[in-house]
Amino acid sequence: MKKVSKAELALRNGQDREEIWIAYKGSIYDVTASRLWRNGMHYEHWAGQDLTDELPDAPHTESVFERYNKIGELI
């Protein structure tokens, strides 16, 4: 599995590159194809960062990450 630094993750924010990635509990997910993450933002959450601490504020559970491809691990 690909190792991804916080700096690399930050570049996949929907603005700097075509790919849109988010991290959750140390895993990196590609959400590029999701219409919910268009332009790198989903409600008040921004792509290109670790969203682990933000999930308690979301109206869904962590099972939502099953919809996306896990592409790496955050280092």
What order do the helices and strands come in, and which of them pair?
Blueprint lengths: L1 E3 L1 H5 L10 E4 L2 E4 L10 E2 L2 E2 L22 E6 L1
Parallel strand pairs: 1-6
Antiparallel strand pairs: 2-3, 3-6, 4-5
Key traits:
28% strand; two-stranded antiparallel ribbon; 75 residues; single chain; mainly beta; 7% helix; Flavocytochrome B2, Chain A, domain 1
What is the average of the pLDDT values?
91
State which percent range the strand residues make up: 25-35%
Taking the alpha carbons of the first and last residues, their distance comes to 12 Å
Q: Given the helix and strand composition, which structural class is it?
A: mainly beta
C-alpha geometry: globular
In CATH, the homologous superfamily goes by the name Cytochrome b5-like heme/steroid binding domain
Number of strands: 6
Structural features, described:
The N and C termini lie close together (12 Å). The longest helix has 5 residues, at 6-10. A four-stranded mixed β-sheet has the order 1-6-3-2. The chain has a two-stranded antiparallel ribbon with strand order 4-5. Helices cover 7% and strands 28% of the residues. A hairpin with a 2-residue loop joins strand 4 (41-42) and strand 5. The chain is built from one helix and six strands. The protein is mostly beta strands and 75 residues long. The protein has a single domain, classed as Cytochrome b5-like heme/steroid binding domain (Flavocytochrome B2, Chain A, domain 1). The model has no long low-confidence stretch (mean pLDDT 91).
